[in-house]
Amino acid sequence: MANTDVLDILSDTIPSTSRGTANKDEIIREKKKGPKKSIRRPEGMKREVWSLIAQDDRESVPIVPTDTKSGGNSYARWIKHSAMKVRSWQWTPFTNSARGSNDTFILYHWQHKPNPDDPSQEYSFAKFNKHVDVPTYTDSEYEQYLQDKDWTRTETDVLFDLCRRFELKFLIIHDRWNNILYPDRSVEDLKERYYTICTALEYARTKRHTDKYNFDAAHERRRKEQLNKLLSRTKAEEEEELYLMNELKRIENERKERER
C-alpha cells in the first residue's frame, strides 16, 4: 500500500473541524525549518547504486501485487475461463503406417476425444515417414551399362541393398559393409560406385547427361587427407604456422607502405 493511500485513510478519521485549521506556532515553526535538505551521494558510489538506495520523497513499491492490466479484474477473467467447457481426452489405440502395411502392432496415446461421425484419421506423425528413392536395375541393364572390373555383381547388389535399408547414410553403410566376405571399401569407394551406377542408369533410360548424381571421389579423398593433416598438427607446428602468418602480414604491410 502506498504512503498516499495511508494518509488518505487517516485523513478520513480526523474531524472536519480540525482538518482545515492550523496553529500559529506550527506555521511559524514550518517557516523556520525551511526546505528539506537532500542527502548528497557519497564519493565513490555509482549514480545507479545511489538511485536505488536513496528514497527521497518517493513512494515505496507496494508489497501486494496489483493488477494494472486493461480488461478488468483478473479473478473475473479466471471465473470466465473456468466456466468454459473442457475438451475431453481419451486413451486411444492406433497403428503406425511407418512400420509397414503388414505390421499389426497396436500403440496407445492420449488424444482429444474424436467425433463419432468423423472417419478414423491416420496417425498424425506418419506424414514424416519419408523414404529415399534408390533406383533398381535389371540384369540386362547391369550387363550392358553397369559392369566394373573392380566390383562384382554380388557386391553391387549388397551395396544397393544397404543403401535402401539405411537411406544413403554412407557412414552407416560403411560400418555395415562386410569386410570379411567382400574387399575392404572406404566411404568414398561406396559413394563413387553408387553415384556412377545412378548416372549410368539415368543416361541409359533418358539418353541425357545429368549432373544430379555427380560425385568427385578424388576431390573428397584429398579434402579428407588435408583435414587429417590439419587436425594432427602438434603445438609447435601450430605456433610455427602462426608465426609465418604474422610474418606474411608484416611483409605485406611493408610492401603497401613502400608503394604509397
Number of continuous helical runs: 11
Which homologous superfamily in CATH is the superfamily of the domain at 139-215?
Homeodomain-like
Number of beta-strand segments: 2
Strand order of the largest sheet: 1-2
Query: End-to-end span in angstroms?
Result: 73 Å
The major pleated sheet works out as: 2 strands, antiparallel
Residues in helices, as a percent range: 40-55%
Low-confidence stretches: 16-20
Mean pLDDT: 80
Q: Would you tell me which CATH topology of the domain at 139-215 applies? A: Arc Repressor Mutant, subunit A
The ordered H/E elements are HHHHHEEHHHHHH
GO molecular function, one term: transcription corepressor activity
Domain DAMP1 SANT/Myb-like: 123-201
Keywords: Chromatin regulator, Nucleus, Transcription, Transcription regulation
Subcellular location: Nucleus
Task: Offer a concise description of the structure.
By secondary structure, the chain is mainly alpha-helical.
List keywords for this structure.
single chain, 260 residues, mainly alpha, Arc Repressor Mutant, subunit A, two-stranded antiparallel ribbon, transcription regulation, DNA methyltransferase 1-associated protein 1, chromatin regulator, transcription, transcription corepressor activity
